[in-house]
Amino acid sequence: MIHFHHIDLLAHFDRERIPERVVHARGAGAHGYFEVTHDLSDITSQPLLASVGKKVKATVRFSTVGGESGSADTARDPRGFAVKLRTEEGNWDWVFNNTPVFFIRDPTKFPHFIHTQKRNPQTHLKDADMFWDYLSQNPESIHQIMILFSDRGTPDGYHNMHGYSGHTYKWLKDDGSFVYTQLHLRADNGFKTLDDATATRLAGENAEYGIEALFNAIESGNFPSWTVYVQTMTPEQAEKFRYNVLDLTKVWPHSEFPLRPVGKFVLNENPQNYFAEIEQAAFSPSHTIPYIEPSADPVLQSRLFSYPDTHRHRLGVNYQQLPVNAPIVPVANFQRDGFMTFVSQGNRPNYQSSIRPLTYVSKKATIDSTVRDEARLARHEAFIGGAWRDLSEITELDFEQPRALWKKVWNDQQRQAYVNNVSGHFKNVKSPEVKARQLTVWAAVDQELSDRIADAIGHARVQPLNVKPASEAVKYRANLGFAFTFLGRL
Ligand code: HEM
């Protein structure tokens, strides 16, 4: 007779898999802590950021973006750098990448963009024509393409790299004032990279190179650590900034917006069970704590929706109750029941009850603040409305920071590595139109850069893409009476 335990095990085994993440499916993770080392009470009233010495527990998940869950750790790809901080006011997630900029600033492009970086619908192969077709039609991606095809596109393991918010956030104070912020996590041992040949070799010899290195570093007591910094920009600085404060294809020059230390981030504990503690982790930029808010950046605004939405698909409606995702403080809201509810809110009213009225902690810094400078906020809101509207224009401004990387930041060896890395991929494009168009994008960055790539793949040299002048990117300032200035040079 077949034993019930056998049938039960078979039935459970048949259901072991859950959907992998639609992007960032490949990853590695660990636990640790974030410690506040500097008092930031002059820029935010969030108590954690004034509590020097305070430590909060954290979980991190690093990832590649385009490959499936079993793909190689050393693929040329941006890396995800997602951190869940368990604070006394709920979870604060940093859902960052290892690059300070991103491919898009218009969120409607995201699914199109990702589809072209994944598999061809017919051949089920990665497709160089799709890949470069998209990028050549959307030249605001060129800054990220410069970084991606430098050796930073193949980091040496998951823990030897920096992390960046990329997006602009807002940190508020009780009086309703705020500064724009960007967070940086800088690896204390530096950003280590692999050259293209080594990354390719490792992808074949040891696809788990990154997962293994992270696990072994923690197991042997070599705890990976990062110093956390914040860049800040006042609304008035944003109004004068050379670039659009909502544009995540740009960096904020450190010379103008210095890195200010915030704390330490340390990984000192491996998961006991990868699936429960890392695969089931659900990060979202919408998981914030009081005084920390998203900016109006439309890509960030779209992400606020997309992550909880995909978690409900991937993990189920009660994904927030899973131990790795649950906040350390009790939850009180109106969400009830659904599949797999295992944290009950007891007999608390499940509606706005007058029989057992609820008490709320008063909101500070946002709509209920008392000492707000209304005129200042109204003026800035008008500015942000214009900044948001003009985000899609491609102009000369889009080529300045990539050009600075090519001409000023990189040395000869880094320039040559870029040409080699990019040519190795780009030479696989079959479409003559796509090839020529992408070369015009590089020529708009720098003619020599484009010529060197053209020579490397045996293509005729091309003229630069014709782009609008920088002034077209900032029309909204003139319309609103904000002066266009060139103060913010790199
Ligand atoms: C419109 C733009 C974007 C959309 C719609 C989007 C959407 C998504 C989705 C659906 C996932 C899968 C999440 C899961 O299944 O758990 C994901 C993962 C991720 N995304 Fe994005 N993304 C966008 C842009 C970005 C940007 C700009 C960054 C970084 C600055 C970023 C960082 C990450 C990271 C780190 C993960 C992996 C999280 C983890 O390890 O679980 N994404 N994204």
From TrEMBL:
Its EC number is 1.11.1.6. It catalyses: 2 H2O2 = O2 + 2 H2O. The keyword Cell membrane does not apply. The active site is at H24, N97. The keyword Metal-binding applies. Keywords: Heme, Hydrogen peroxide, Iron, Metal-binding, Oxidoreductase, Peroxidase. SMART domains: Catalase (SM01060). It is an enzyme of class 1 (oxidoreductase). InterPro entries: Catalase (IPR018028), Catalase_AS (IPR024708), Catalase_clade1/3 (IPR024711), Catalase_core (IPR011614), Catalase_haem_BS (IPR002226), Catalase_immune_responsive (IPR010582), Catalase_sf (IPR020835). Signal peptide: none annotated. GO terms for molecular function: catalase activity; heme binding; metal ion binding. GO terms for cellular component: mitochondrion; peroxisome. Heme binds at Y307. GO terms for biological process: hydrogen peroxide catabolic process; response to hydrogen peroxide. Catalyzes the degradation of hydrogen peroxide (H(2)O(2)) generated by peroxisomal oxidases to water and oxygen, thereby protecting cells from the toxic effects of hydrogen peroxide. Belongs to the catalase family. This is Catalase. It comes from Agrocybe pediades.
